[in-house]
Amino acid sequence: MNAEETRLRSLEAVARLPLAESPLGRTIATTPTDIWNDSCAVNELEYAISFGATGATANPTIVTDVWRASPDTWHARVVELARQHPDWTEVELAWAIVGEMSVRGARLLEPVFEATGGRKGRLSMQTDPTLFGSAERMLLQAAGFVSLAPNVIVKFPATAAGLAAIEEATARGISVNVTVCFTVAQALAAADAIERGLDRRVAAGERIDDMGPVVTLMMGRIEDWLHVLTERDGIVADPTALPWAGVAIVKRAYALFRERRYRSRVLGAAIRHHYHWSQLIGGDVVITMPAAWQRRFNGSSVPVRTAIDDPVAPAVVDELLTHFPDFRAAYEPDGMAVAQFDSFGPTVRTLRTFISSYHDLLAVVRDAALPNPDVRRT
Q1: Cα–Cα 20 to 30 A to 208, which of 78, 98, 146, 167?
Q2: Do the domain assignments include residue 11?
Q3: Are 275 and 244 in contact (CB under 8 A)?
Q4: What whole-number distance in Å separates Cα of residue 51 and Cα of residue 173?
């Protein structure tokens, strides 16, 4: 039997099992670790919920992918909205579509949200990535997001302005999901901002027990950056060390979150391989993963065992520290100052990707609202 036949048989076997008995189902049922669906697509979220997933997340890339999966549906919806609101710009039409996609997903998560008193069962909506330098404008958009559904959580970037917005949003009772975050220093700064916001809210006599803030570390994207540096700068490092970089950063951040008793949770994102799931099992963390990775993991034989406290081999960490100054900056708690967050390579790369995807969304909305007259319509 070749590798492809083995993979297909594994997938067939898991398809015959109750999904609660699958590896991801066991992860959720037997450990404190939660799984989120890394999309607001309804069909993908339904699959994730079937084995116990407790949340979902979206960003401009994901929203554009959801559109492309059902272009006729969203094209028709833009046409209808443009007819109802002839004074709306393509930006307003695009955010209306983002809102509708998000609300559809949020409804599926409401039972978990209600059962956990707001701690879980949330749908993430990301602020406009072009606003990463304006706390005030991100906060204004966040207020609109949370008015759409009770279980919306708002994504703010771990930029200098984003940290200010994170504290203020938290103080206003908005649960936040910190994104565009790759380093222990960023995660700690974001957690501190959340703590200040929660303390302000408590001092004002407001409740915080119904909030569920998370701080995302984009594991795969920091590893992507190390691969870029390897090629760009001609670095010769042990290639088996690179897949441990994101894991090592998350494990160190998680230990510090527990030590400092932060009230936010670590969230691992940007899945590239099974370490990004298997090495975090057992932690009071969230892992968000696309449906394709969920199905792959559920069809795997990777054992479900607590691994969050297993240290990354010192030799591996030393290899990364020796060859990659940017890994040192990402791994050490004081490796970066806030003033450096906005210019860090992975931050710039990710913002560029999100902004590009946002412009792609605007383009498809524009084509729906203003069809190209040079093209014959069918």
Answers
A1: 98
A2: no
A3: yes
A4: 30
Which two three-digit tokens encode residue 46?
């339904």
8 domain residue, yes or no: no
- Residue 288 is part of which domain span? 18-367
| Domain harbouring 115, CATH code | 3.20.20.70
What letter does residue 128 receive in the DSSP assignment? P
The CA distance from 50 to 78, in Å, is: 31
Tell me if the pTM is above 0.85.
yes
Question: Could you report the average pLDDT of every consecutive run of 10 residues in the chain (378 residues)?
Answer: 48 47 94 96 94 90 90 95 97 96 95 92 97 98 97 98 98 98 98 98 97 97 98 97 98 98 98 98 98 96 97 98 98 98 98 96 95 86
Return d(Cα 40, Cα 57) in angstroms, integer. 6
Give a yes or no: residue 62 inside a domain.
yes
Is the Cα dihedral 312, 183, 34, 12 positive or negative?
A: negative
Segments of the chain assigned E as strands? 34-37, 55-56, 122-126, 152-157, 176-179, 214-218, 265-269, 286-289
Q: How many domains are there within the chain?
A: 1
